[in-house]
Amino acid sequence: MPRVSPTLEGFRASFRRPSLTLAEIAWRWTIGGMGWALVFFWLIEFLDTLPVTKADAALLSTKQPLLIGRAISHILRGSLNRAVLGALLAAIALSLLWIITASIGRAATVRALLEYFRRDSASDVPSKTDATSEPRAFPSLTGLNFLRVAVTLSATLAFVGAAILAGFASPDSKPRPGLAFICFLPLAGLICMAWPVLNWWLSLACLFAVRDGEGAMGALSAAVTFFRERTGPVCSVSTWTGLAHLVAFSIATTVVSVPLAFIQIAPWRPVVVGAFLVMLAYFAVVDWLYMARLAGYVCIAEMPDALVSSTPIAAPPSPAPAQTTIDREETILSDIPNLAVQT
Question: H-helix or E-strand containing 238?
């Protein structure tokens, strides 16, 4: 029976089912649009609360950088509490919206991929499971997405803590910014390595929350077992989709940087619009690659072990050992004269 390449099957599924990519783009871009809208309205409401006196307006009208800076610092004085409170409320609202929307979207896409691979393999090999446990999928996904938000918040707080710890190496009495940066860099590197790994485990666990109806902790345990048993195929899918993501990023940055280099001599509006369209196209490609990777994981989970794991090659039969001793019964080696002739 021929082996199946999960990477190729994932890309094939994303090509054959463009509606999955459109669904992924729909809920992700909805969250992104809501986030930018919250930032925009928060900025408007925050600026509306700032008191501007006649003296501040006079300083701003001078167009002198030093005087404008004095006016802005006076306007923003005492407004930090309002800014932090507004940003905190916006972040909480956006996080709750993301948890609910991501749970609904992930349940829909994973179920569609499960149906695709089970129908595709029904004529050849039976799948490992017959039906998803729909009633428990949404609570489990909500718990996993809540953990993803908590991990992201922990990473943000860890960056703040790392900056505070690094600041002890550069006190005000004897500032050492270079030493503080050297102390901050390894701590930031550890955070940047730990956060994506934890986020990847939680995102992989969503597959088993939908397929098996596991709880949040049960789905996470199933994801760990799945990776331990299928390390090679999972790493292969992640590596190839990651390389494709890197190529898409390189192409997008190159395409954007070329018109931005002429922004001083060309009309800025077409340049900004073109850069914005390229950015949207890059985000669409990234969402498509994510669906291809998720489809590859579903293919690995649904296919039997013999189709996605490397089968051991049968060793060739070893030759018969050569005879290294002398047969004393051989007549040609006898010490009796003319014995071979007599026989």
Answer: helix 231-260
Long-range contacts of 232-239 (CB under 8 A, 24+ apart): 232/309, 232/310, 233/6, 233/296, 233/300, 233/308, 233/309, 234/297, 234/300, 236/6, 236/7, 237/6, 237/7, 237/10, 237/293, 237/296, 237/297, 237/300, 238/293
In a domain, 313, yes or no: no
Does a structural domain hold residue 322? no
Query: Quick one: CA dihedral 236, 241, 244, 250, positive or negative?
Result: negative
- Residue 299 makes CB contacts below 8 A (sequence gap 6+) with 4, 6, 9, 10, 13, 117, 308
Distance CA(201)–CA(224), nearest Å, equals 8
Residue 317 lies in a domain: no
Kindly indicate the confidence band of residue 88, based on its pLDDT and cuts at 50, 70 and 90: confident
Cα–Cα–Cα angle for 123, 128, 132, rounded to 5 degrees: 105
Dump pLDDT digits (tens) for 231-265: 888 999 999 999 999 999 999 998 888 777 777 77
Domain range holding 166? 6-307
Q: What is the mean pLDDT of the chain?
A: 80
Number of domains in the chain: 1
Residue 299, in any domain of the structure: yes
H or E stretch including 75?
helix 65-76
What the block records as the tokens of 254 is 């190159």
